[in-house]
Amino acid sequence: MFSGFIFDVEGTLVDCIPQTLKSLQEAIERYGPPVPYNTLQLYSGLDGDQTLQLVVPDAPESVRKDILTMQARIYRETYLNGVQPFEGIRDVFQSLVRQGGRIALATDCKGPELKHYLSLLDVDEFVTAKACGDDVEHGKPDPRLIGLALSKLGLSGPQSVMVGDTPYDAEAALEAGASAAGVLTGGFSSEALLDAGCFAVHEDLRALLPSLVTANSST
Q1: Buried (b) or exposed (e) across 160-183, using 16+ Cβ within 10 A?
Q2: Which CATH architecture has domain 4-15+84-214?
Q3: Domain 17-81 is in which class?
Q4: What 3 state SS string does 156-207 have?
Q5: Three-state secondary structure call for residue 94
Q6: pTM value?
Q7: pLDDT digits (tens, 9 = 90+) for 22-46
Q8: Torsions phi, psi of 66, nearest 5?
């Protein structure tokens, strides 16, 4: 069993990917031609500026910053209060901690959103460390967010696993030296997550739990 369990939040613990993508789509439309939802889904979980460089390649940096600012405002004002946590998260966290695991959250989202998500999840007592978008400049697949979570846990990469819903979570985990496991709650296929390096992929976090506790880690 791993000693450290690092969890993405959006799309992994909280059901908010459709709302996040819709708010981004609306923000892009205020500055230029629309981008199809299915196109944005391909980059769900990728660093926001990198996403915009791919989907609106002609937009200068200043416009990309404005789009991301607008997206955050639309999300908070229109969508944030309607999101819900996935079922069973507290039970999974409790099970891991009872078996000696240490839990960290590693998410690109920032203060207001993370605070709201934590109020919904009710897992503070099980979480040892948090690393969020306020702590690092670049989002996943940059590995620094995962590295920060590992540092706060006081564990090495081989002792830990990152659980996320996108290929970018897995890529960041592997680059930081940790293992990666995936859930299908973010809209990506099993193949996409396995190809990105996940050793196990399941429908949701409850279904993934047995794989997490039986996997071997290197110490």
Answers
A1: bbbbbbbbbbbbbbbbbbbbbbbb
A2: 3-Layer(aba) Sandwich (3.40)
A3: mainly alpha
A4: CHHHEEEEECCHHHHHHHHHCCCEEEEECCCCCCHHHHHHCCCCCEECCHHH
A5: helix
A6: 0.93
A7: 999 999 999 989 999 999 999 999 9
A8: -65, -40
